[in-house]
Design a protein that fits this description.
- The two termini are 48 Å apart.
- By secondary structure, this protein is α+β, with helices and mostly antiparallel strands.
- Helices cover 50% and strands 13% of the residues.
- Strands 2-3-1-7-8 form a five-stranded antiparallel sheet, covered by helices on one side.
- The radius of gyration is 36 Å and the shape is flat.
- Strand 2 (42-48) and strand 3 (51-57) form a beta hairpin.
Length: 733
């Protein structure tokens, strides 16, 4: 079957857009082919800085003939409706339609339409102009004389050529003829803009790849990445060094060039006196280069760096490496200045005494000075939530309150919280915001802070994503929780909650961070009490939420806190589902009042293990049966006794179940009180046989109303006993 080769060549496409654009092109073309009645065997997209390419194999040569009946309006319908039907069906007059009769609906028109299949080339030619004109670039531009005309083509960068061939492997493919804004599709492309700018005529995909390679273009982005990584590893190994690998940088660099040539540059040893993170970010951000380290060293860097060029220079790249080294040295000189400035006294020390007293800061220490300045400058955190200094005060008090609950020393948690945001006022963080926290830790250690305090300054931001680790030291845990809980309670208080896909303050990530810190460290915390502590003790005075009715802030708190707790529940469900937990078990365990998230997780785990056993499945069936009977009778208004009366038992199975339920209630309740949920499930497992025996031998709806009410009360006891652990009615089964 025929194959399709497509290339859209342009000026440089930004690296960050290339992968998605190539995926969008594949989806748009493939979906268009299928919608037009064609099938294909495989499709793969490719991209370089100057081209998007598509290889679609095994396309059917022609779409199938289509015959269908289009139902029209009644024969008595107004002329306007009939004319609309004719346009839809493609008929010249109503005489070409057929009349059908229906005993209920009467007579109506039907058009029998036959459409012959179309050649794949024709379908592609009709499809591509619309795809190109309406391509979903995040940003696009117009260019040249045609840009002044309405409806002129927009593309991410000026589109230069279109290559489109179609045909089977057994013969030369044909050019699919179409045109977009004066650019006509052909079978010609260009290679590397410096090494091979001549025109290249290609046939099918394999020929295209081979000729591009000969013209110094590596089409496959993954192969470019492998070339860069392998050559960089070999080059550094030969120099007695190790490459500091960086997947994000590798992805970016592979999108900046079509013919990767790996080189090595260097800078002066003296620059190694600044932190490795600063060196790495300086070289990465400014020159898109990789750093290296001495062989076997995990923390130190060397004064060599790896760069990737897009050309093969006659001098082997010596001048390119020298030029990059010159720029790197200039940037590192700036970094040295930032580093030294951050360890020197601030010029406005005299103005910082008030802030220093407020936070018990030592103005002989550089990081303390930066915290004092952060407070004195009154840097706004949020208009309704006060300044950064006010926020630090809230985090400080909240961390001290949380410290005993997580095993931390309150004084250390307070000190860490006070210094946690100080590096926002450092020169290095001002230049490289991504080093926030990491630089605070380094500066804290330099001024003699306790290692746990220094670690908390960096780790309180964690986890910043699903792959990021959570803090494990008690001081770090206390400050991390305080920081995230202040954010969540604060933005809930001013009614700035996530809506749909919009979450400008990353509150979903903050809530998931709280969940992970609690669960992965085994920390029990009553969130409701934290919400109330924030609102009654820490809430800024200027917090104000508009309301249609005159209600006080105190009146709003319970509903607001319940809504925030529900938000945590939603995030917890996402977290547990990602861990493989069943959604129905989560729903069965979570109640609107459940504010100890660790207990929820423990219950879900114990319930899942129990329900995987035969006893669990049988108890679930019996409990659901009891719940269904109760629900039906409650709906009918049937009388149910308040308590079970053993005197009304008529069968042994009733007494056996009553004794089993009484024992299970007691044992499960005690186990739950000590958070031993496995033991609670084992206690409930004892109900399996008496429940089965009861339903096999006993008719619940006895003619005697007193006996019936007593038996329904017994079923209610089953529901109550299992309900201590979970709502079994919500479990699928």
């Amino acid at each position: 079957m025929p194959d399709l080769l497509l290339e859209l060549r342009s000026e440089e496409i930004p690296a960050r857009m290339q992968r998605k654009a190539a995926g969008d092109l594949k989806k748009l073309v493939a979906d268009g082919l299928v919608e037009a009645g064609l099938t294909y065997e495989a499709a793969r997209e490719y991209w370089t800085p100057r081209r998007l390419a598509l290889d679609i194999r095994g396309i059917t040569a022609r779409s199938k003939d289509v015959s269908e009946e289009i139902k029209g309006p009644a024969t008595t319908a107004p002329e306007q409706a009939i004319q609309g039907f004719l346009r839809k069906a493609g008929l010249a007059s109503i005489d070409e339609a057929h009349v059908h009769s229906d005993p209920k609906k009467g007579d109506f028109y039907v058009a029998r339409v036959s459409r012959p299949g179309r050649a794949a080339e024709e379908i592609v030619a009709g499809l591509m102009p619309g795809i190109i004109r309406n391509f979903p670039w995040p940003k696009s531009m117009r260019w040249g004389a045609a840009s002044a005309k309405p409806g002129s083509l927009r593309w991410v960068r000026p589109l230069q050529s279109i290559l489109c061939t179609f045909g089977p492997e057994s013969s030369d493919p044909e050019v699919v003829d179409f045109e977009v804004d004066g650019i006509r599709a052909g079978n010609v492309t260009l290679g590397h803009r410096f090494h091979a700018p001549q025109a290249i005529t290609v046939k099918r995909f394999d020929d295209y790849v081979t000729k591009l390679e000969a013209a110094k273009v590596v089409l496959d982005a993954e192969r470019r990445k492998r070339i860069i990584l392998d050559d960089a590893r070999n080059l550094t190994f030969a120099a007695g060094l190790d490459l500091v690998e960086d997947e994000g940088l590798l992805e970016e660099v592979s999108g900046l060039l079509e013919w990767p040539v790996v080189l090595m540059g260097e800078f002066e040893q003296a620059f190694l006196g600044i932190p490795p993170e600063v060196i790495r970010l300086t070289i990465r951000a400014n020159q898109k280069c990789f750093v290296t380290r001495p062989r076997g060293e995990a923390e130190k860097l060397s004064n060599r760096f790896v760069l990737v060029s897009n050309i093969e220079a006659r001098d082997g790249g010596a001048e390119i490496a020298r030029g990059n080294g010159k720029v790197v040295r200039a940037r590192l000189s700036d970094a040295v200045h930032f580093w030294n400035t951050d360890q020197a006294d601030l010029p406005d020390l005299a103005a910082l005494t008030g802030s220093a007293e407020k936070f018990a800061l030592d103005l002989k220490k550089p990081l303390d000075q930066r915290m004092a300045r952060l407070d004195r400058l009154g840097v706004t955190f949020h208009a309704k939530l006060g300044t950064q200094g006010e926020r630090v005060e809230r985090i400080r008090r909240l961390a001290a309150d949380l410290a005993p609950l997580v095993g931390a020393e309150p004084a250390m948690a307070e000190r860490a919280a006070v210094l946690a945001k100080a590096d926002l006022q450092t020169e290095v963080v001002g230049e490289f915001p991504e080093l926030q926290g990491a630089m605070g830790r380094k500066y804290a250690l330099l001024q003699g802070e306790d290692a746990a305090v220094a670690a908390a300054i960096e780790e309180h931001y964690r986890p910043q994503g699903p792959s990021d680790s959570v803090p494990t030291d008690p001081v770090s845990i206390a400050v991390a929780l305080a920081d995230k809980l202040d954010t969540l309670t604060g933005f809930w208080a001013i009614d700035e909650k996530p809506t749909g896909s919009k979450d400008p303050y990353a509150l979903r990530r903050a809530a998931l961070g709280v969940i992970r810190v609690l669960v992965e460290n085994g920390v029990r915390l009553n969130l409701w009490s934290i919400f109330e502590f924030w609102e009654t003790t820490l809430q800024p005075e200027n917090v104000h939420v508009e309301s249609a009715t005159p209600i006080s802030s105190a009146d709003m708190r319970p509903a607001r806190n319940a809504d925030l707790l529900s938000f945590f529940h939603d995030r917890l469900k996402v977290y547990l589902r990602d861990k493989g937990a069943r959604h129905d078990l989560i729903d069965a365990v979570i109640t609107p009042e459940a504010d100890d998230l660790l207990l929820v997780v423990s219950r879900v785990a114990a319930l899942g293990i129990f329900l995987d056993s035969e006893d669990g499945q049988n108890l679930l069936a019996g409990t659901r049966r009891a719940a269904n009977i109760l629900a039906a009778e409650e709906k009918k208004g049937t009388a149910i006794a308040e308590d079970v009366d053993p005197i009304l038992f008529r069968q042994d199975e009733e007494g056996a179940l009553f004794e089993a339920v009484t024992h299970a209630e007691h044992e499960a309740g005690e186990a739950i009180a000590r958070q031993d949920f496995s033991a609670a499930m084992q206690a409930l497992a004892a109900l399996r046989r008496p429940v089965d025996a009861f339903f096999e031998a006993v008719l619940v709806n006895d003619e005697d109303s007193f006996v019936r009410a007593n038996r329904l009360a017994l079923l209610s006891r089953i529901r109550g006993a299992t309900g201590q652990m979970a709502d079994f009615s919500k479990i699928a089964g």
